[in-house]
Design a protein that fits this description.
Elements: E1 6-13, H1 16-26, E2 30-36, E3 44-49, E4 58-63, E5 76-84, H2 89-98, E6 103-105, E7 114-118, E8 124-129, E9 151-159, H3 163-171, E10 174-180, E11 183-188, E12 196-201, E13 215-222, H4 225-237, E14 246-247, E15 251-257, E16 263-271, H5 296-302
Parallel strand pairs: 1-4, 5-8, 9-12, 13-16
Antiparallel strand pairs: 1-13, 2-3, 3-4, 5-9, 6-7, 7-8, 10-11, 11-12, 14-15, 15-16
Bound molecules: zinc ion.
Length: 308
């Protein structure tokens, strides 16, 4: 199985406009796709990442207007960590203060330097200073290269029991890098930069409740459909119940629920977000899945404008 690290992280939001403003204007990411939920086409599916939305950079959101905030707990991703250049934290702290976005100096784990940031729906976002990350951040969103977010560093999964999920990740090619109390850090060798998954054991904590700010699933990258088929075979042998490949227009996806309760996806790096928009225009037009194109007029009336 050849997993390259994270592909994307998909989460829920309570409002499209506030979500778009936070990720594009505050964090300076590029919106690389504006489309709709395949299963609920009156709801946006918004993607924010680097210049191309490369695998390992894209956070995607389903904004469901007015849904309540999710409850923290186990069986869920509890934090998404981004990589920023060494020394960039001070600049980010000033920017976030100016924008009145809650944040605090990050206290670990593993001696990491950075900021803990609270997103518009209470989501936990870490900006972590990383020395050995050659990825270039998007500088078209008002954040220069010395400070720009380069993509994900990793995710933290909060679990009642970590061993079964750790076994799945090890089957996917991850290996334990470090342990600090209840936290086990796994890393994939030769990854795309979004290389880490932290597992935090919280055996007595209730399950997280899904809502605004909740991560819906965590997607891992494979290069192409052959690698995806190989991963599907190996994970099925390891006992996972996996969906058949599903065409998500910008990648092919398979899904399975991990024993700890977190939904995993394995997504192909191809064809990518520039399959239906020129690279310089990514994320500007409303793109609809083929089967919903006939509903375009109605969908455009319903969706909240986000660029005004
Ligand atoms: Zn996904």
């Amino acid at each position: 199985m050849k997993i390259n690290g994270l592909h994307h992280v998909t989460a829920l939001a309570s409002g499209a406009r506030s979500n778009n403003a936070f990720y594009t204007q505050a964090l300076g990411l590029r919106r690389v796709k504006k489309t709709v939920n395949f299963d609920a086409p009156d709801t946006y599916h918004l993607y924010y990442g680097d210049e191309r939305g490369r695998p390992g950079t894209a956070i995607t959101y389903f904004p469901f207007a007015g849904i309540g905030q999710g409850g923290k707990g186990t069986g869920a991703a509890s934090e998404v960590a981004y990589s920023i250049p060494v020394g960039a934290s001070g600049w980010w702290a000033e920017r976030l203060t100016t924008l009145e976005i809650p944040h605090a100096r990050r206290e670990g784990p593993f001696g990491e330097t950075g900021l803990d940031v609270t997103g518009p729906d209470g989501e936990a976002i870490a900006l972590v200073e990383v020395a050995d990350d050659a990825r270039e951040g998007w500088t078209g969103g008002g954040v220069d290269a010395a400070h720009a977010i380069r993509g994900f560093r990793g995710v933290t999964l909060r679990l009642r029991e970590t061993a079964p999920t750790q076994a799945i990740l090890e089957a996917m090619g991850y290996a334990v890098e470090a342990v600090d109390g209840a936290r086990t850090r796994l890393k994939i060798a030769g990854g795309n930069g979004a290389d880490l998954v932290d597992l935090v054991a919280a055996p007595n904590e209730p399950r997280a409740a899904e809502g605004a700010g909740s991560v819906h699933h965590v997607a891992f990258s494979v290069s192409d459909r052959a690698a995806q088929d190989e991963a599907r075979r190996a994970l099925t042998e390891a006992g996972a119940q996996i969906t058949p490949p599903i065409d998500r227009d910008y990648f092919w996806a398979i899904y399975f629920r991990t024993p700890g309760g977190v939904l995993f996806e394995i997504a192909t790096d191809e064809p990518g977000f520039d399959r239906d928009e020129a690279p310089e225009a990514l994320g500007t037009a409303l793109k609809l899945p083929r089967q919903h194109e006939r509903l375009r007029t109605r969908i455009e009336e319903i969706l909240e404008p986000i660029d005004a």
